[in-house]
Amino acid sequence: MAKKDYYEILGVDRNASDGELKKAYRKKAMKFHPDRNKGDDNAARKFKEASEAYEVLRDPQKRQRYDQFGHAGVNGGGGFGGSGDFENVSFEDIFSRFSDIFGSDIFGGEGFGTTGRGRSRRDRSSGQPGADMKLKVSLNLEEIAFGTEKTLKVKKQVKCKSCGGTGAKTESDFETCGTCSGMGEIRQVSRTMFGQFVNVQPCPDCRGEGRIIRNKCDECYGEGRKRGEERVKINVPSGVAEGNYITLRGQGNAGVRGGESGDLIVIIEEQEHEHFQRDGNDIYYDLLLSVPDAILGIEKEVPTLNGKAKIKIEKGTQPGKLLRMKERGIHGLHNSGVGDQYIRINVYIPKELSEEELKHVQALKDDGDHFDVVNARSREKGFFSKIKDIFVGKE
Fold it and tell me: Secondary structure of the chain in the HEC alphabet?
């Protein structure tokens, strides 16, 4: 029977890049691997075909010969040195030859021969790693603007002081696990017509540690850790925002019997401010003026993120006008600059006036056209016409 085209097997076109070939093979290998399809001869055959195809096409010279001469150009198309099958090729051999493909997420989150944290099973430290923790910290705008240091009280699993985290009364209270002979893992070898396959699992008796405790610590009962509380200092840089987080390595829950501690993930929450609204690194403040102050102009004291400052309100300032105070905003994250503070002008219009006050307002209205909207627009139009004449010239 004629052999299938290698490009067709992987589902790529003939000008596929190395990255596309690798991605296609990985997808096929994960789908048809015999460990995931026990007893399925069809899946095993497809896994073999995909491995053979990739072994040829990943090699530039073999790929060139295959493109020119087909299967005849690569010694009959044997994927592993021309053998054409997987006889005497172990599980380890297959994955060692494709170690550049398989990352830490294949087959249940672990690459072959590694723990979930990417360490060799034989080289890992004793114990089991602790869990990560998440903690929220609430900051006001002043703390965000300039950065701050916080001391957090964290309730978590801490190392047992009595046994030093080992879980045993003394170091001599450990003994090698008889089930796995100290390896921390159990290997089951199965042989099929396609070769031998090795299934590796943590030892159920020692939980992958390679040793067991004869006399457990009275304080932690062999866990090597206890529920406790620790104070953790955190430096928060300026410019952080709601939802940002800071990871403190090794500050999470202590591991079991000397295992690595998890991480502490501190999530930023931003408090609502009494005076300011934030927009990126800029802040906005609403300043309410009386009608006379807006008309006549005034000097006002306004709050800032660093004390108070005085600003001058020009006469005739209109509602909605924005006044800029340069670099009075938030210091950006990673020294990305300083924002500005904007003063947003609002004018207070009283709803209730006394009879005497109403008379004064009416007198102002009757005294001239200063408060006539139509005349005001005409005056503005005349002003802009004069400006146009200056720059454009009269015809």
Answer: CCCCCHHHHHCCCCCCCHHHHHHHHHHHHHHHCHHHCCCCHHHHHHHHHHHHHHHHHCCHHHHHHHHHHHHHHHHHHCCCCCCCCCCCCCHHHHHHHCCCCCCCCCCCCCCCCECCCCCECCCCCCCECCCCEEEEEEECHHHHHHCEEEEEEEEEEEECCCCCCCCECCHHHEEECCCCCCCCEEEEEEEECCEEEEEEEECCCCCCCCEEECCECCCCCCCCEEEEEEEEEEEECCCCCCCCEEEECCCCCCCECCCCCCCEEEEEEECCCCCEEEECCEEEEEEEEEHHHHHHCEEEEEEECCEEEEEEECCCCCCCCEEEECCCCCECCCCCCECCEEEEEEEECCCCCCHHHHHHHHHHHHHCCCCCHHHHHHHHHHHHHHHHHHHHCCC
Domain span at 320 = 274-349
Structural domain includes residue 86: yes
pTM of this prediction?
0.58
Query: Is 81 within the bounds of a domain?
Result: yes
Q: Residues 19-61: pLDDT tens digits?
A: 889 989 988 888 888 878 888 888 888 999 999 999 999 999 8
Is 189 inside any structural domain?
no
State the total domains in the chain: 4
- Do 260 and 138 have their domain in common? yes
- Based on the fold, state whether residues 304 and 258 are members of the same structural domain: no
What are the tens digits of pLDDT across the range 369-388? 566 665 655 555 554 454 44
